[in-house]
Write a structure and sequence with these properties.
With 835 residues, this protein is α/β, with parallel strands linked by helices. The two termini are 31 Å apart. The strands form four sheets. It has a nine-stranded parallel beta sheet with strand order 7-12-11-10-9-8-13-16-17. It has a four-stranded parallel beta sheet with strand order 5-4-3-6. It has six domains: 7-172, no CATH class; 177-448, Alpha-Beta Complex (sialyltransferase cstii, chain A); 451-576, Methane Monooxygenase Hydroxylase, Chain G, domain 1; 578-643; 647-734; 784-835, no CATH class. Helix 13 (256-262) links the parallel strand 10 (248-251) and strand 11. Residues 1-10 have low confidence and may be disordered. The protein is built from 38 helices and 17 strands. Helices cover 54% and strands 8% of the residues.
């Protein structure tokens, strides 16, 4: 029986079917998605205008049997827009073999995963990222993933695009980074360089957010007086719970998500020193209650305020902490929680983090890294790249006389970093307090950095320059409009000279700030290079070229001016904080604007209860309440994202992938993860499915059947998976009764199983039932010639020659030269002659 039925191969894509609207597609890719509504109507509803904007690069996973690709090509393609469709290898081959892709437009490609990076380069992905115009969507077939081929593909594409977006934004001198830098100028007052070489020969422990952190925290607490403790801001919640106060806490990320992850750091005492990049998210910077040391330059333009300082080395906050530890003079760095891989169950971060509370991550790709213990652990693309960067950094520090140790067995094994368990770590007996030593050193120079007057003067200088550029840009825009006739020809060379004069002012008189303005208008300026235009400029477009250029200048100047104006207001508010009689209404208004409610704690240190009016105290109380509400709120965007990655909906796909690739160890890890999932009742059926897969791989078929039966009894959305495995076990064990019952149920769930059900009926001698099953299938899929041939052969075996000939005529009507049908028809004629 095993030679006659192959459940996997025969059900993968299913037959090509045609719905009542004339749409052709592989049935098992889309099943009933297009039964009641045409593909075009569904595509209009799902994608609407989102795939038809100008100057965009659309990355689309799946083509819905080529229909989505043909749908896009049936419409006028937007100017400057390109499309990359990505299909699994098996699907792409089938689409090409059945000519379902058609002739592709030069701005549309359909490729496999192995080819998509080349397609990105050919379609100038960097240029699209520079203007924030890369979009990723899933076709219906990729979202449903009935064939278990799209889930991992989609996860991988999303990870890679996220990395590329970050990389290209950084290359561009991202506007977001510079915006944060200007925003923070009022609070970035003391450069980290002040502590250079302050701790020569000492040992620092660097605590990060990997899963191994919790096991090492008791050791850190035990040896707290022998170590300088560096901590990344995202583990503040865990450190507070363990009653460990770090000497230095680090943050470098400019995004609001970073605040969600790190906000508990604002509950550390003022003995902890905050070391941050100049572009760190302002809500951490402006509410910090203690000493703050900034990294990098203070302003994004040439200024006397930009003193010599330590750089904000990346790409991750761990890299930054390691670099700063070296610059501060530490010679031995012990890494804890720097795992850069996940636990085998799929937990990505330390106990107590949003990610751990949300549950193990299930949307994992097949990417793995070897750990210090020698086993392979899952990881992500960004972690894998971070490991490479950390290795390069460690090599440089090793060459400078530093030693870097990772103490976790479960951390990724990284070249140039030694692995040594905590029990083998040797520390000096000398007791020292890095925080006190640092505060003493910084206290000597603290007053010299209260330079608000100098900051205001510099900001007003910039304000004057940028206002002038904005005025010139608006003037140039008007001149450019009046300079051309309707055909795009220059009609006033006097106006052309005016524009040349303005351009010279940009390059000479306002050279420094013109460059900065361009960076804020860069996304519009990039379009002038026409990197994604496929046609020459028309006369009208040539006429508009100057407008685009000067609009970009004006846009950049307006953005920059808004940031500078806001920074001036912020510095003025900081000046008030040190005034003898502060304008509290101004302070409160600024705190509300910046969502810096926590600054009220600084004000209350200077003005204890009883020194202020009841009205002011009441407003202070309200700010305090708002601050506490923000800090205690766990329903953040970051938590929502963490829960999405831990959604049980991804388990079925991951389990199927691991089973298909014969990975029992990873399946066992997945089972362990499900045991720890917070939604235990919902996880039961998934756990039973995984247990069935494990038992089947171990050839324990009775145990597997029991597990699959539990899935069926629970009745969740995994009936098909369980029944398919039961049928397969029946075939494997030559148990036709089990296989027949399972296939009978399957054929009622999904008609693509009808030919398999018919075949097992035939093998059991029930030809009538087999004929009925084949006929039912062919009525639904009248173009599946292979199954039609099987039915014709069965008719012959049953000596029902008229039925066989009718079936063969039906086949030959579709394919007149189909050799197999012609041969069988001649054979029937011979048999009739022989009687």
């Amino acid at each position: 029986m095993t030679d006659s039925i192959n459940l996997v191969d025969e059900q993968l894509l299913g037959p090509i079917t045609i719905n009542s609207f004339g749409d052709n597609y592989f049935f098992n890719l889309n099943r009933h998605a297009f039964d009641k509504v045409s593909a075009g109507a569904l595509f209009d509803t799902k994608f609407g205008e989102i795939l038809f904007n100008e100057d965009e690069l659309n990355i689309i996973v799946g083509t819905d049997s080529g229909m989505l690709l043909r749908y896009i090509q049936s419409k006028p393609l937007p100017k400057g827009t390109r499309y990359i469709f990505i299909e699994p290898d098996s699907v792409l081959l089938a689409l090409k073999a059945n000519d379902l892709l058609g002739e592709l437009h030069e701005r549309v490609v359909c490729v496999s995963l192995n080819e998509w990076q080349r397609a990105l380069q050919n379609f100038k992905v960097a240029d699209y990222f520079y203007i924030d115009a890369v979009k990723s969507v899933n076709a219906f077939c990729a979202e449903d993933d009935f064939i278990d081929e799209y889930a991992e593909l989609s996860w991988h594409i999303a990870e890679v695009l996220s990395q590329l977006n970050w990389r290209y934004s950084a290359e561009l001198g991202s506007e977001a980074f510079m915006s944060r830098q200007i925003h923070n100028v009022a609070d970035n007052r003391m450069p980290a360089k002040l502590l250079a070489k302050a701790f020569l020969g000492r040992t620092a422990v660097i605590l990060a957010g990997g899963p191994s952190l919790e096991h090492a925290l008791p050791w850190v607490a035990q040896h707290r007086q022998q170590l300088a403790v560096f901590a990344v801001s995202r583990i503040s919640r865990q450190l507070l719970a363990a009653d460990i106060s770090p000497d230095f806490v680090f943050s470098v990320d400019p995004t609001e998500l970073s605040f969600d992850i790190s906000k508990e750091m604002l509950n550390f005492s003022d003995k902890t020193i905050f070391v941050c990049s100049h572009h760190t998210v302002p809500t951490l910077v402006n509410q910090w209650p203690g000493i703050l040391l900034y990294l990098g330059s203070r302003l994004p333009w040439q200024s006397d305020l930009n003193v010599k300082n330590l750089s904000s080395a990346g790409p991750t906050v761990t890299n930054t902490a390691l670099s700063v530890a070296y610059e501060f003079g530490f010679s031995q760095m012990i890494l804890i929680g720097v795992d850069l891989c996940f636990t085998r169950e799929g937990f990505t971060h330390a106990k107590g983090s949003d990610e751990q509370l949300a549950g193990p991550r299930f949307n994992l790709t097949s990417l793995q890294m070897e750990t210090n213990a020698g086993y392979m652990a899952p990881t992500s693309c960004d972690f894998a790249q971070a490991a490479q960067a950390l290795s390069r950094q460690a090599k440089l520090l090793n060459n400078s006389g530093c030693r870097i140790i990772n103490v976790s067995e479960g951390a990724a094994r990284i070249e140039n970093i030694d692995f040594k368990p905590l029990s083998d770590i040797q520390l000096d007996d000398e007791i020292f307090d890095a925080g006190i030593e640092a505060a003493a050193k910084l206290g000597q120079s603290k007053d010299q950095f209260q330079d608000f007057d100098a900051v205001l003067e510099e900001l007003r200088r910039a304000q004057y320059q940028v206002r002038a550029i904005a005025k010139l840009s608006a003037n140039a825009r008007q001149i450019n409009d009046e300079m051309y006739n309707p055909e795009g020809a220059v009609i006033s060379f006097y106006d052309k000279k005016k524009l040349d004069k303005i351009e010279k002012k940009f390059k000479r008189e306002y050279r420094e700030f013109s460059k900065l303005v361009k960076k804020f208008g860069i996304r519009s300026l990039i379009k002038l290079a026409k990197p994604f235009e496929d046609e020459d400029w028309s006369a009208e477009e040539a006429r508009q070229l100057g407008n685009v250029y000067y609009n970009a200048y004006l846009e950049g100047a307006t953005k920059l001016l808004g940031l500078i104006d806001a920074a001036i207001e912020r510095v003025a508010a900081r000046c008030q904080e040190s005034a003898l009689q502060p304008d509290f209404s101004l302070l409160i208004e600024q705190a509300r604007k910046d969502r810096g409610f926590g600054r009220v704690r600084l004000w209350r240190r200077r003005f204890p209860p009883g020194q202020l009016s009841t009205a002011i105290e009441s407003q202070f109380d309200e700010l305090e309440r708002q601050f506490l509400a923000v800090i205690s709120d766990r329903n953040t965007r970051h938590m929502a994202r963490a829960k999405d990655q831990s959604s049980l909906s991804a388990v079925k796909k991951r389990a199927s992938l691991l089973f298909k690739h014969n990975k029992p160890s990873e399946l066992a890890d997945l089972r362990s993860a499900l045991v720890k999932h917070e939604q235990q009742e919902a996880a039961i059926s998934y756990r039973c499915l995984v247990e069935g897969y494990l038992a089947e791989l171990d050839k324990k078929f009775d145990t597997a059947l029991d597990a699959y039966q539990q899935v069926i009894d629970i009745g969740d959305g995994m009936l098909e998976e369980a029944l398919a495995r039961i049928a397969s076990i029946g075939v494997e064990r030559d148990d036709p009764q089990t296989a027949r019952l399972a296939l009978e149920c399957l054929s009622q769930l999904n008609p693509i199983y009808l030919p398999l059900f018919a075949e097992i009926q035939r093998l059991q001698g029930d030809a009538v039932s087999a004929l009925d099953a084949y006929a039912t299938y062919i009525r639904q899929f009248p173009k599946d010639i292979l199954v039609q041939m099987k039915l014709a052969v069965l008719y012959v075996d049953c000596k029902i020659y008229d039925g066989a000939e009718m079936m063969l005529d039906f086949i030959l009507n579709q394919k007149p030269n189909y050799e197999s049908a012609l041969v069988l028809k001649r054979r029937i004629s011979d048999m009739k002659v022989l009687g």
